[in-house]
Amino acid sequence: MIVAENVCKSYQNGRTPVLKGISLEIGDGELAVLLGASGSGKSTLLSVLSGLERADGGRVNVNGEELTEMTEKQLTDFRKRTVGFVFQQYFLLPHLTVEGNVKLGAHLAGNRDYGREIAAVGLEEKRNRKPAELSGGEQQRVSIARALAKNPKLLFLDEPTGALDEETGRSVLDYLLKLQKERRFTAVMVTHNPGIAELADRVIRMNSGKISETYRNAVKKTAYEIAW
Amino acid sequence: MTVSLRDGAKLLGIAVMSGCAVFVCTFFLNFYLDARAVRGLVEESVLPLYEAQILTAKLVCAISGGCLLLVSVVLLAFYVKLYIDSHAKQIGILKALGYDGGKIALGFWVFGLSVLIGTAVGHGCGYAISPMIYRKMGGEGLPEIPLTFHGELLVFLVLLPTVAFAALAVGLAYRRLRAPALSLMREKEAAAGGGKPPRRELPFPLELRATTLKSKKSLVFFVGFACFCFSSMLQMSASMGDVASETMGAIIFGIGIVLAATSLILAFTSLVTANARAVAVMRAHGYTLMQCGGTVLGGYRIPAYIGFALGTAYQYGLLKLMLGVVFRGVEGVPAYSFDWPVFGIVLAAFAVLFELALLWFTREMGKTSVRKLCAE
Questions:
Q1: Do the Cβ atoms of B189 and A85 come within 8 Å?
Q2: ipTM of the complex
Q3: Is residue A226 in some structural domain?
Q4: Which range marks the domain in which residue A6 is found?
């Protein structure tokens, strides 16, 4: 479970406040979507909840671990044990093959069965290709496989379909939902697309560094049912 | 302009390298030219001493100045190439926006400016120190050698290198810019051909280390060459005490240290720039900074020590050859043999400095976060 209480974060020595007293709860196994316009603070909140960045104030508790009290070393260990990341720009290592990139995640968890993750995202045939030889959607699927190869309890996704066209975006989300259903990890996804929010168990809408609305979807749609 | 003032530290490195090389060349070449002009005034009795001084100037200039200059040229050329490669994406974006390739390439003339600053300062300092060198090089019975300004040295040591480097930088940039904008915007390594399955399964850190090295061959050469310079310059300057005066030895040693340190710093800053992204991604996933450093930078130890060994062999061979050629038939010149104590000291200093640099630059790489990458 992720619990944040009165989380504040600013840049430029406090001159640019980005998060202004955020409080939220995300239950185990949920898919939560942070929804908001560009500059609303959703990516910063994702970074703080995942231990990539520290909050300036307030507290963040993840599965009983107090992130705000951790040293840099402990935060690194927390990310290693608990968190998987999927970024909008994929951030694959260009000199590694698909398999090599997935191993980057698998190695941390001592997971030797990383072939399963490659198969899960449908890239078995292309395991020896380099990122430049893959389409955007395929690269994002590699990035998902890399994150899942760590067997994370929490998966953080920052605009995972932001750089993809509609068809590819839907297929990536479909994969993701399928895997989340199978493995029951908690997922927190940032998006500016209200349609994608219809996939979520919980939607947290942000505006100017604050939560403006939180609600649960009574009916979750599939990746092919949502508006794009 | 594609090369901005934010690159000042790197441009300063280039200025320091070219300045050091020109500094040594200036006072020895100046002395050589001035001393040659007074040959007719030298009395028969002190002719051997005069010849010895001329030979020393020629030797030191050829070994130190000439080699330093050559080494600087190679290093700078590689540095410019690496710089352009690491800015290919930025250049590609400009090109895609419709900027003319030739105009973008012209922005790289700034490398010539930094060479101009370095060589001008080096030449000025070399000229300023010349009276002291002339006093040291002079001897009892030798005619006074007047210090004369040689315009041709200014041309050959300052103006020509400046123009040559500006042209080299612009030319390399222009050549790179002939590629389509899209391929420039893609990662260079990414454009490399498809991967073959590895011949044998390596533990992942070793596999990552090997692929990192394989994908950055220019950097491997650059690091190896910087270590080659470190090894050859320090050992050569320390060993030159046998053939040059103490003051001369000290000057050359000092320059050797500055140049060796500069080349290592240039190599390491290039390493950091080229690998910061990989380290940021690895850290986000939970790799510790030390694991990242060990995996990404640790692989450069092998080319570094190979460079050091080659530098050792090179300086030994060159000194032996030059002494044999220049002092052939001159009596009283000590036979040159390999200087084991100097080798031991330089190797120990290198090992310590290299490990410290790895630690320091690993920390530097840790400053690039995924958030920074996202913002770029």
A1: no
A2: 0.81
A3: no
A4: 2-216
